[in-house]
Automatic annotation (TrEMBL):
Domain Nudix hydrolase: 26-157
Name of a matching Pfam family: NUDIX
Record family assignment: Belongs to the Nudix hydrolase family. PCD1 subfamily.
TM stretches of this protein: none
Name of this chain's protein: CoA pyrophosphatase
Cofactors (names): Mg(2+); Mn(2+)
Keyword terms of this UniProt record: Hydrolase, Magnesium, Manganese, Metal-binding
């Protein structure tokens, strides 16, 4: 799938389906789902969180974080991407949002999908990001690469998404967001 087709499929879905974070949500977060356009292929960019972080240490995620008071969620996603990996907000063509994603730690995440050109280099904030890597979008579009499993968390059995890629195990909220993206592109 090339960028033009990706854009068309993504934008055909109605924005009303995505929803917005309610002001009453205490733990609001936003992430950028960075889709890198290499011309002949699209890649998704992921971060691996630093091991010393309080929430989700070592897990694979999208750049993002808490929405500051009075901040718009798309601005938070872009700000966090700039802080975490050095991605200039002007380099991102925001296409829109995916449905909200809740986490087991009480956060409500607003995912923003953005197209960008390949970057010459990344500047990782070592306090938050241990590393970055890319995965071809086509990998996730194949149903056999998307899985669900049950896990007891905080006194409940929860259904979680997982999408392994090579030596990486993408699961939880990040995989759920990817699943929603794949459904929207279908």
């Amino acid at each position: 799938m090339l960028a033009a087709e990706f854009r068309q499929r993504f934008l055909l879905q109605t924005a009303a389906k995505a929803g917005a974070i309610a002001a009453s949500d205490k733990h609001q977060a936003a992430v950028l789902v960075p889709v890198i356009d290499y011309g002949t292929k699209l890649q998704l960019l992921f971060t691996q969180r630093a091991l010393h972080l309080r929430h989700h240490p070592g897990q694979i995620s999208f750049p993002g974080g808490r929405i500051e008071p009075g901040e718009q969620s798309h601005a938070a996603a872009l700000r966090e991407a700039q802080e975490e990996i050095g991605l200039a907000p002007s380099a991102v063509d925001i296409l829109g949002t995916l449905p909200l994603q809740s986490t087991s730690t009480g956060f409500t995440i607003q995912p923003w999908v953005g197209l960008l050109s390949p970057q010459q280099s990344w500047i990782l904030q070592a306090d938050e990001v241990a590393g970055i890597f890319e995965v071809p979008l086509t990998h996730f579009l194949q149903q056999e690469n998307r899985h669900q499993f049950s896990l007891p968390l905080r006194g409940k059995v929860q259904q979680l998404h997982a999408m392994p890629y090579q030596d990486k195990f993408i699961w939880g909220a990040t995989a759920a967001i990817l699943h929603k993206l794949c459904l929207q592109l279908a």
